[in-house]
From TrEMBL:
Gene3D superfamilies: Crystallins. GO terms for molecular function: structural constituent of eye lens. InterPro entries: Beta/Gamma-Crystallin, Beta/gamma_crystallin, G_crystallin-like. Keywords: Eye lens protein, Repeat. Belongs to the beta/gamma-crystallin family. GO terms for biological process: lens development in camera-type eye; visual perception. The keyword S-adenosyl-L-methionine does not apply. PANTHER family: BETA/GAMMA CRYSTALLIN, CRYSTALLIN, GAMMA M6-RELATED. Coiled coil: none annotated. PROSITE patterns: CRYSTALLIN_BETA_GAMMA. The keyword Repeat applies. This is Beta/gamma crystallin 'Greek key' domain-containing protein. It holds the Pfam family Crystall.
């Protein structure tokens, strides 16, 4: 999406394009499918559906010649927004194994390739982001569905857009 750059309707940067430099809640009038993206600067969250809903994909500067390069499940990108880490250069997140911040808690200030290996949790049901921005992945080693987490409270996993509490890994968003 060239964000600021250009999403292209076809693979390898072919077909019609649209340049985004600001948050865009509805990209449907620009293209029906998105198969390649160039991110010129900043980090962006792309969404499968309009109004920042559906599957999420977090992209840093670079070229993505097809949707598999951004771990996309299909070629549907209908909205996007830039990631603004206005909280300095520190990161801190706390997860809970029960909703509404109940049960056991685990706090972290660095990337975690395996939630189970590190914390012995198979599911995360709520969390508090105290500093920075994070990407939570459904599977270990940064694979599967992605969920963008910014500073704030998430009393239930549905608050970060997940359909299940499954959580395998997470990492800090550092490329701004």
């Amino acid at each position: 999406m060239g964000l600021p750059g250009q999403p292209r309707s076809d693979k390898n940067f072919q077909g019609c394009s649209h340049e985004c430099s600001t948050d865009s809640p509805d990209l449907t009038s620009y293209f029906s499918r998105c198969n390649s993206i160039k991110v010129d600067s900043g980090c962006w969250v792309l969404y499968e559906h309009p109004n920042y809903t559906g599957s999420q994909y977090i992209l840093s500067p670079g070229e993505y010649p097809d949707h598999q390069h951004w771990m996309g499940f299909n070629d549907s990108i209908k909205s996007c927004r830039s990631i603004k880490n206005v909280y300095g250069k520190s990161w801190k997140i706390r997860f809970y194994d029960k909703q509404d911040f109940g049960g056991q808690a685990a706090e972290c200030v660095k990337d975690c390739p395996s939630v189970y290996e590190t914390f012995k949790f198979r599911e995360l049901r709520s969390c508090v982001v105290m500093d920075g921005t994070w990407v939570l992945y459904e599977q270990p080693d940064y694979h599967g569905h992605q969920y963008f987490l910014e500073r704030g409270e998430y009393p239930n996993y549905t608050d970060w857009g997940a359909n299940s509490p499954a959580a395998g890994s997470f990492r800090m968003v550092t490329e701004l």
